[in-house]
């Protein structure tokens, strides 16, 4: 077995790992990160809406909206898409000789794009 096929086995295995991670990322739920929801001035037993500190509710909303609403779905999509690319390339290049390695690398880079951080403007 050529080294390209060994690499394809690893690529196929990694694609499954990325698909698993995408599923796990999508299942994550972010709870309130700012501390207890009880306003000490309202008393521990208070269940009224003012028992929750406004700042705690705002922090929980930010956590939910930004992390669960934007970040987690973006991560999930990126992991799934990259896993799909890996699986497709492993299938496409299976059985080809080692001289196709550069073509495989180029196809991978073209498919998944640039992973570097974007500069803030």
What attributes characterize this protein structure?
121 residues, mainly alpha, 3 helices, 0% strand
Quick take:
The chain is mainly alpha-helical. It has three helices and no strands.
Q: Give the amount of beta strand, in percent.
A: under 5%
State the secondary-structure class: mainly alpha
What overall geometry do the principal axes of the alpha carbons give? elongated
What integer is the average pLDDT? Answer: 80
Q: What are the secondary-structure elements, in order, as H or E? A: HHH
Distance between the termini: 49 Å
Low-confidence stretches: none
Main β-sheet: number of strands, strand sense, barrel status?
none
Oligomer: single chain
The percent of residues in helical segments reads 55-70%
The strand count comes to 0
Total of helices: 3
Mind telling me the C-alpha Rg? 23 Å
Describe this structure in words.
This protein is an all-alpha fold. Helix content is 64%, strand content 0%. The N and C termini lie far apart (49 Å). It is elongated, with a radius of gyration of 23 Å. It is built from 3 helices and no strands. The protein has helices at 3-27, 54-93, 101-112.
Secondary-structure topology with pairs:
Layout: H1 3-27, H2 54-93, H3 101-112
